[in-house]
Amino acid sequence: MSFADALAGAGAKPAGKRPYFLEPQVERVLAITMTIAQELAVARQRADTLERLLQAKGVLAPGEIDGFTPDAQTSAERQMWNQEYIARILRIVQQENEAAAQLDDVASGEMADELAKTS
Amino acid sequence: MTAPNSPPVANDPTAGYDGPPDYRVVGRHAVFPQTNHDEIERINYLAQMNRHLAARVVPGVKAAYDKRVEPGFRAAHGRPIANRHEARKAMLEDPAFQTWSALRRATMEQRQQAGRWTALRQNEELARTAAALTDGDDRLVLDPTVAIPRYVSAVDHHCMPGSYHTEYFPGDVTNGANYDHAGFVTTGGLLGKFTDGGGQAVVKWVKRNLPDFKPKKILEIGGTVGHSSLPIAQAFPEAEMTIVDLGAPMLRYGLARAKSLGVDNVRFVQASGEDLSRFPDHSFDWIQTTMFLHELSSRAMHNILAETRRLLKPGGIVLHVEQPQYTPEMPLFEQAMRDWDAFYNNEPFWSRLHEMNLDDEMVTAGFDRDSIIHGAVFGVVDRELFPDAQEDETEDYGRKAAWEVIGAVA
Questions:
Q1: Which of A12, A19, A31 has its CB closest to that of B161?
Q2: In chain B, which end has fewer C-beta atoms inside a 10 angstrom radius, N or C?
Q3: How are beta strands B372-378 and B140-141 bridged, if at all?
Q4: CB contact under 8 A, A38 and B46
Q5: Chain-chain contact of B110 with A34 (C-beta, under 8 angstroms)
Q6: ipTM score here?
Q7: pLDDT per residue over A8-48, tens digit each?
Q8: Taking CA B387 as the corner, what is the angle to CA B374 and CA B56, rounded to the nearest 5 degrees?
Q9: Cβ distance B168 to B247 under 8 Å?
Q10: Please, what sign has the CA dihedral across residues B258, B260, B261, B264?
Q11: Do A30 and A37 form a contact (C-beta atoms < 8 A)?
Q12: Is the CB of residue B284 less than 8 Å from the CB of residue B313?
């Protein structure tokens, strides 16, 4: 079986119409979010496995991760990563706020109609 | 993990751990799919999600029913809710039931995707392993002329794409592998190391209640990969156990699994339980079905019960293990919650079956009313590693390893 076939087959819809309990738009986003939550758990467990293996091999000492204190430079890099991460995730909120302040904004479709006018 | 029943140690949050075991304790065999680290953790997470929904979200659904749904219905209609269908429809308007339902459905879909990915990515290798174990073995009898009835083909049971019967190539076992290895998500380990807690429970019940019963020929109808059949075959090594099922991928996988586990007194035969004419009258001492009746139709069940009557030797027994019937004593909230699978998890006969008078059905099939057997069983598991259904107070409606037995003596 090809990779593409396995991908499509794994996510295949079962026979039988899907019920919706919430507004379909909301339930769609919920289902996507719950799968991301699942994958976050998988990633968290992988990091935990890594830490425990490193401890078992003597590379990490117990408590070393929880006791980790970054120096000023490292701290700044890590906190900037947090800021960048949050800004990426909340991009749509930023853009909606910018839109609220931009009262003369037009839609591309409106421009298309305007530019299609021959006269 | 701390052993069950040991007293909690102060300030040790793991001491009182109550929940599914790590998936790594499940029993493996030759055709069990390989699972990498992340695939295992995906199953662990999904089992915990089902546990969370049952233990920590359902109580909120119950409270909403008691405080909002039932009083709201009473105020709107001037009478109490009359039956489980009214209860379910009223709950569909309540946010607690909506949220729980949306999460439960999403979890089932995530489980299928997770399990199917693991099975599909290695299905050619699994088919080769199964073929090496079963090619030329007369204990695997496939019949491609067996028609798949509408009650199986129209909606895929428990949202399992392709159901039990779909083959993706000749010799395929994908759907058997998916069904076997990831069922843990739904049961949370309550069916034990080899998902055989139901079969072990039946064996325990038979040995206790029918101590002189020495069956030689045993049939399980709708036995899929043999989860419930193998403990029976192992408990009665002198007997020959026949497992019939509609799905060729289940049967191939089932025989390979059984042989790999050292269980040899089994045969896997492709057939519909409605037409077992390949077996003469009075062929069996014991006929078993386990969590099977709810995946039929009324007509199919009549036909199957009649076939069991025909096939049993005089004095032989038939036993059906099922989730509990709806009775007037069962609260309407519980009935409506148990009906969830019928309406939202592709188990369409679940609702009708559980309201039927099964004693009458058995009599219609030709059994004497005086010969009817009733019992109750819990999943039997290795309690060092797995949770015990009898001690588990979490109610995951329709999923718990606590069943009723209805049967008869021919």
A1: A12
A2: N
A3: unpaired
A4: yes
A5: yes
A6: 0.82
A7: 999 999 999 999 999 999 999 999 999 999 999 999 999 99
A8: 95
A9: no
A10: positive
A11: no
A12: yes
